[in-house]
Design brief:
single chain; 449 residues; alpha+beta; 11 strands
Length: 449
C-alpha cells in the first residue's frame, strides 16, 4: 500500500491511497473461510459448501468491505503518523472513485479531499482591552426576587365572594335563544375559569361579587376570543370549538384565591430546610447573596462572550470554506445547500473559536482532573436542584447524582468541555487588560438586543 498527499493550497490537499491485491487478499480469504464454516446452503452439509461457491456468492462484497476497512484504517494511521491536522473528515473524490472497476481490477487508487487546519499564532496582549460589566442590584430587583419566592411558595385558598384574580371551578352549559339550557348543547362539568383572563370588561364585571352556586350567563366567544381558551373551558380539542358561538351559563361551585406566602419561618423552612434561616433579616441577606451570585454569573458570561470575540478578532486566519460546506452537506443528509449557506457564518465563528481554544489549551498544557470533573458535576447538580426548589439536598445526595452524571460518556464530555473552556477563558483574561464598569440591569440587557 502506498499513500501520497498533494497540497492544492495551504488549506486543501488530496490524499491518494494505492491498494494492491496483496494488501487485502489475505483478509478476504480469511473472511470467506469463516463464511464457509457458518454457511447454511440448501443441498450442502454445514461447513461442506465448496469454497468456490462461497467465493462466487460473497467474494465481491467481502472484497469491497475489506478494502474499505483497509483504506479507512490507513488514512487515520497516516494522518496520525504524519501529524496532519484536518478539519471535518476526508471526503471521497466521487468523480474519480466512481470509475474504479472492482469486477476487472485487482489494484485500486482511491482519492480523498482534505481540509487542512490553518496555521496561526495567538498574539493577545495587554494592549487588547475588554470591559467587565458589573451589574448593580436595585430595590426593584430585590423586591422581584422576594415576590418570586412568596408566589412560588404561595397557595390557593377558598374564598366567599369572587374578585378579579380568582379561579372559579364549576359547570358550563350552552344556552338556547330563549336563555334556557340548549338541548344537545355543549356542556362541561368540573371545569375552571380565571376571571382575570376574561377579555371583555363588561362580562368580567358580571363575574365579580358572586358566591358559590350562583350563575352567570355570558357570551363565551366575546369573553374568550381565543379557541385555545374556549377549548380548555369546554374540555374539547381546539378544532372542535372553532364554530362555537352564543351565550353560556357558568355555575360557580368553588372560588379559589391565590395567597402569596407570608415572610415568616414557615417560608424560610420550605425554601432552605428547617432551621437554616431563622429571621427575616437572615432571609433578606440570603436573597442578596443569591442576587449577587446570579448577577456575577451574568457578568461573567458577558465577559466570556467578549473575550471569545476579542480572541477571534485578534487571531486572523482563513479556513477551507468550500471543503467545509461540502463536508457539512455530506454529514447532514437532510440539510440543503441553502441552509448551509445561511448558517455558515455562525459555523465559521464557532469553528474558529474551537481552534483558538484548543491551541491555547495545548500551548499551556491544560489538563482536567477527575476531581475537577466531579466538582463541576456537583455544581451543575446543585444548580439543577435549586431550579426544582431542592435547596436542602445533602452533599452526599449531590455527590452521588453528580457521579451518576459522569458515568454517561456524553455528559462527561460536555462537562469536560465546559471546564476546558473556562480555563482557556481565564488564560485569555490574564493576557489582556480588563476594565470594570458598573451598569444597571436594564443597561446590561440592552447589550444583548
Amino acid at each position: 500500500m502506498n499513500i501520497t498527499r498533494e497540497s492544492t493550497d495551504a488549506l486543501n490537499a488530496v490524499l491518494k491511497i494505492n491498494v494492491e491485491k496483496a494488501d487485502y487478499e489475505g483478509n478476504v480469504e480469511k473472511v470467506l473461510r469463516d463464511y464457509r464454516k457458518k454457511a447454511n446452503i440448501k443441498g450442502f452439509r454445514p461447513g461442506m459448501v465448496p469454497f468456490g461457491l462461497i467465493r462466487k456468492m460473497y467474494g465481491r462484497v467481502v472484497q469491497i468491505d475489506e478494502i474499505n476497512k483497509i483504506v479507512t484504517g490507513n488514512i487515520q494511521k497516516y494522518l496520525t503518523d504524519e501529524k496532519v491536522e484536518i478539519l471535518g473528515d476526508p471526503l471521497p473524490r466521487m468523480d474519480e472513485n466512481e470509475k474504479i472497476d472492482f469486477e476487472n481490477s485487482e489494484n485500486f487508487t482511491f482519492s480523498f479531499d482534505l481540509g487542512l487546519a490553518p496555521e496561526f499564532e495567538i498574539k493577545l496582549n495587554s494592549k487588547n482591552k475588554v470591559t467587565y460589566y458589573e451589574i448593580e442590584a436595585d430595590e426593584k430587583m430585590k423586591n422581584d426576587y422576594l415576590e418570586n419566592y412568596t408566589r412560588r411558595y404561595g397557595r390557593f385558598e377558598k374564598a366567599e365572594i369572587t374578585e378579579e384574580k380568582d379561579m372559579l371551578k364549576g359547570s358550563i352549559v350552552a344556552l338556547s335563544v330563549e336563555g334556557n339550557p340548549a338541548e344537545d348543547g355543549l356542556t362541561a362539568d368540573d371545569t375552571t375559569l380565571s376571571v382575570d383572563v376574561i377579555k371583555d370588561e363588561e362580562i368580567k364585571n358580571m363575574f365579580l361579587g358572586r358566591k358559590e352556586n350562583e350563575s352567570v350567563d355570558f357570551d363565551l366567544r366575546k369573553a374568550f376570543p381565543n379557541d385555545f381558551e374556549i377549548a380548555a373551558i369546554l374540555k374539547k380539542q381546539k378544532d372542535e370549538v372553532s364554530t362555537v358561538e352564543g351565550n353560556f351559563r357558568f355555575t360557580i361551585n368553588e372560588i379559589s384565591r391565590f395567597r402569596a406566602a407570608e415572610i415568616k419561618q414557615e417560608l424560610f423552612d420550605r425554601i432552605y430546610g428547617e432551621g437554616v434561616i431563622s429571621s427575616e433579616e437572615e432571609f433578606r441577606n440570603r436573597l442578596e447573596q443569591e442576587i449577587a451570585s446570579n448577577l456575577k454569573a451574568e457578568s461573567d458570561y458577558k465577559l466570556s462572550v467578549d473575550l471569545k470575540k476579542l480572541a477571534i478578532d485578534k487571531t486572523p486566519f482563513d479556513l477551507p470554506e468550500d471543503f467545509l460546506k461540502r463536508w457539512l452537506l455530506r454529514v447532514n443528509e437532510k440539510t440543503t445547500e441553502e441552509q448551509i449557506e445561511k448558517e455558515f457564518d455562525s459555523f465559521r465563528t464557532d469553528l474558529k473559536w474551537q481552534l483558538i481554544r484548543n491551541r491555547i489549551a495545548k500551548n499551556n498544557e491544560l489538563k482536567i482532573t477527575e476531581e475537577e470533573l466531579q466538582k463541576e458535576a456537583e455544581n451543575i447538580t446543585r444548580y439543577q436542584f435549586r431550579q426544582y426548589g431542592l435547596f436542602y439536598a445533602t452533599d452526599e445526595q449531590v455527590a452521588s447524582y453528580a457521579k451518576e452524571t459522569l458515568s454517561r460518556e456524553e455528559d462527561a464530555k460536555r462537562i469536560a468541555d465546559k471546564i476546558l473552556e473556562e480555563k482557556v477563558i481565564e488564560l485569555i483574561k490574564g493576557m489582556v487588560k480588563t476594565e470594570n464598569k458598573k451598569v444597571s440591569l436594564e443597561e446590561f440587557n440592552k447589550m444583548f438586543e
